[in-house]
Each structure stands twice: as C-alpha cells, then as structure tokens.
Write a sequence for this structure.
C-alpha cells in the first residue's frame, strides 16, 4: 500500500504541473519566431517581433489566447499589430532581460511592462541606463499603452525577473545594479507600484554585471545571478517573499567567462546555467562546496543562449552553433533528474524562423512543484496538499491551523 500511495502522489504531482495557468502558452522571440503550447506540445508559430535577446509575452490565464508581446522597445497586440502608443519603450533588442510583463493584481485588463536598459557595448546610442515601467490597458481588444517609460532606478544592469509575493496577491520585480553588488526589489501591490525599492547588498567581488540573467526559483525561495562579461560570476542567494530581501550569497563560480542563461528545475532542486558550457548544479545540498562540486556539464559550447522553463515542465534552450543561428530549440526533458539523466537533447523543437540568443522572460511561479509544502505567510490562509484522489481517506498531523484535517487539501492558517 505504501508503494501504491507513493505512485499516486507522484501522478498527482505530475498532473498538477500540467495544469498550470495559461499565461505562458504563447512564446515570441528571435527573428520573428515563436512556439505555442495551447494544445500541450510546442508548435512553431510566426510573430511580428524581432529581438536579438530580451522579449516577453502574455496570454489569457484561463483560455491561453494571446494578449500581447514585446521586445522592450515595441508592443504588439493579439493581432500581431503594433499596439496604440506601443513604440519607444526604453528596453532594447540587445538587452539580456530587457522586459518583464506583470499583471495588475486587481485589474485583469491592466498590465505593467518593466524594461531594463540595452547596454550593448557595440551600441554607441544607449537610450538609458535606468529601469522603467509602462502601463498597458486592454479594455479595447487591441490594447493601448496608456503610460510609458516611468522612471524607477538608475544604474541597473540588463537583468530583470519577478515572482509573486508571500500573500499571493502581489508581485516582486527584481533588478540588479551594473557596477555594484546591489539587488533592487520593487513591490507591485493592489495599490500600484511602490516606487521605493527594497535594497539588498552582498559582500563579494564587484563585477561589471552588464549582461547575463537573474532568475527566481518557482517556489520563490532562491534567486540566481549570472554575469556574462569576462571575468564573470555565478551566484546563488536566498529570496524572502515576505519582504523582498535577498541574502546568503553563495559563489558557485568566479572568474570563468560567459555565464548567461539561468533556469531552476520545477522541483527547485537543480539550477541550470548556459555559458561556456550548459551545466547543472544540485542546489538542495547542504553547503556551497557541495553545490559547486555537484556541477555536471551537459554540453560544451561557446555559443550560449537563454534558458526558460515551460508549462510542460521542460527547460527550453535557445540553440546556436559556430556557423550562426538555428531554426531549433534545444531541450532539457527531465530537469528534476540528476546529471545526464535529465535528458538534454539538441535540435528538439523545430522553428519556422531563426532562434537568436533570447527566449521570453516569464515569472516561473506557475511552473513549479515541490515535495515540500510551500511557504505560507502569517495572517494568510493557503490551501495545501494535492487534489483529492477518489477512494482514499486522508489524515493530517498536526491538525493545528487546518480547517479540515481529514481532506486531501485543507486550508492552512498558521499562527507561526
């Protein structure tokens, strides 16, 4: 019976992952390229977007219908037409994570677009060195940019990520300074954007953090930083969803060149990094030395691209080669598994047009699952446990703070 129950739990966990919300159903990236997950498997599509690196897209969370997408400079609507007032955002097509789309917590027809600067050394016409946000409204089906390029922070790198806050009703948007060891956490709440950011500093060698990614784990407890410049760095931190504070700096690699893309596994136990190599780290180990030595190289390449976790639980890799760009995505089929058993495959998803360096920048909170209970905030009630399985009885212990300890997924209201 224990074995049967274990198998049931594993099946439930897998089904939960497959029933993620649909915000990430449509991806647009690269040279007018893209894929759609609307029918489950990734199918190639064509879009209006061109971006060498950063981009983002958003779909209806219930239906999966495309809402809009952007390269940080231009916004296209669901009809692949430029949105009203949708030109001239202060991101850029050669910025690693130039743009992030964040829903308004209280208005389903309103979205924020955060933009990080394009600091490409070859571009002598840098438009800005600052983080900005713009506001999108979709009362009209074609959409409109109603407020554009609102200043937030100066001196930031091409790094931008986000996740939900601990209440589950708001969001944290995270950026990083270019030439200082500083993270900035900006809170998006029901009252709007709190412009006074939470500043987290850490003690480490100061690098030029111009390019490379930052990424938060699906459960919102870890944040990783990769710096592309030579010399570069790879670091792992703790993230606090309650107050947005980032702490406990762990250096996984210093001085190595070219760390670029990042993705956590759905179960939050592995970190994948693209750069000079495509590598995996076990981040659930007890100390930083153990994490460092857990590194497994999946592919050796000097042509890295972005990594992005998909709603199917696989990690997709922007595929490149020495001769140029390719009309394929690489894939990590089983990212929760250790080492080469994770199932890395090249040229796994065909595309209609070239994939370049970037993939859409999503917040990964919808893509994860864990064998551990998620963090629950004080004064907030959260449903825990799997969906009920017919024919089984359940018992929770201890029952303190649970509305019903005899069902599969009670509501927890913890006092500590």
């Amino acid at each position: 019976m224990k074995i049967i129950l274990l198998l049931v739990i594993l099946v439930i966990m897998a089904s939960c992952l497959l029933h993620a919300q649909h915000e990430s159903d449509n991806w647009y990236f690269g040279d007018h390229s893209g894929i759609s997950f609307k029918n489950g498997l990734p199918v190639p599509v064509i879009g209006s977007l061109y971006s060498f690196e950063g981009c983002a897209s958003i779909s209806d969370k219930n239906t999966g219908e495309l809402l809009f997408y952007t390269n940080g400079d231009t916004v296209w609507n669901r009809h692949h037409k430029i949105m009203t007032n949708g030109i001239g955002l202060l991101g850029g097509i050669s910025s690693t994570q130039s743009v992030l789309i964040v829903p308004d917590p209280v208005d389903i027809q309103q979205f924020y677009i955060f933009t990080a600067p394009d600091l490409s050394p070859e571009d002598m016409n840098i438009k800005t060195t600052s983080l900005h946000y713009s506001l999108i409204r979709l009362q009209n089906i074609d959409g409109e940019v109603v407020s554009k390029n609102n200043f937030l922070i100066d001196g930031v790198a091409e790094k931008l990520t986000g996740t939900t806050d601990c209440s589950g009703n708001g969001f944290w948007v995270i950026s990083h300074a270019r030439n200082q060891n500083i993270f900035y956490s900006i809170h998006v709440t029901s009252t709007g954007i709190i412009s006074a950011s939470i500043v987290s500093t850490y003690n480490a060698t100061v690098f030029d953090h111009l390019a490379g990614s930052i990424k938060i784990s699906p459960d919102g407890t870890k944040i990783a930083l990769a710096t592309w410049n030579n010399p570069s760095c790879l670091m792992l931190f703790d993230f606090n969803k309650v107050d947005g504070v980032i702490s406990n700096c762990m250096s996984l690699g210093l001085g190595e060149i070219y760390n670029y893309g990042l993705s956590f596994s759905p179960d939050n136990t592995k970190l994948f990094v693209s750069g000079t190599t495509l590598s995996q780290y076990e981040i659930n180990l007890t100390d930083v030395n153990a994490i460092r030595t857990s590194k497994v190289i999946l592919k050796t390449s000097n042509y890295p691209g972005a990594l992005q976790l998909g709603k199917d639980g696989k990690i997709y890799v922007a595929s490149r080669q020495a001769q140029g760009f390719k009309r394929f995505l690489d894939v990590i089929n089983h990212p929760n598994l250790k080492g080469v058993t994770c199932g890395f495959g090249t040229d796994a998803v065909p595309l209609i047009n070239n994939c370049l360096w970037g993939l859409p920048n999503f917040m990964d909170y919808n893509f994860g699952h864990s064998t551990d209970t998620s963090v629950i905030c004080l004064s907030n009630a959260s449903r825990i446990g799997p969906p009920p399985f017919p024919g089984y009885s359940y018992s929770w212990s201890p029952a303190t703070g649970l509305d019903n300890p005899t069902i599969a997924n009670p509501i927890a209201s913890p006092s500590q």
